[in-house]
Specification:
two-stranded antiparallel sheet, 4 strands, mainly alpha
Amino acid sequence: VYVHSSGYVHRDVKPANVILGPDGTATLLDFGLAAKLSDAEAMADLIVGTAPYKSQDLFERGQWTTGDDVFAATVTFWETVSGRHPWGGDAPNGSAKIEAADLGALFDDVTRDRLAATIGALLHKPPTGMHAARDAKERIVAALRAVGSGEPLALWLAPTIELPKDAKLTD
């Protein structure tokens, strides 16, 4: 949330740009492609970033938004918990293949279904605006908590958040 509330978009959220600490806290790295939201020229540069993590909406809109970071973080989260990219590693086009069965034994049946539905909805229409990352995280945490599951994996949505060194993610 800090990145977005500071007026920036990362523009290259992907697994290679996230490091997971021993306590489960994810930290976003490599701000080389980050740009100020108010920089119209940079926001219109659709060449930057990594294709499999860019939303189809980005190309239709022709401009980066905070929702594009949330979309990429959601793809990254899905890859982390399912072991596969929603589009098989290709650039997103058509419907994502989000299936509860991809979560294997990691969750019980109800949690798998609820989490897959939440991720599918976030990939179909990611939240936008200054609080997009927080909104997406809250939706994933709610999906996990609604069935009595823990929170650790929900912390993986943190790639859209740059945390101060002494900060801890909490809901």
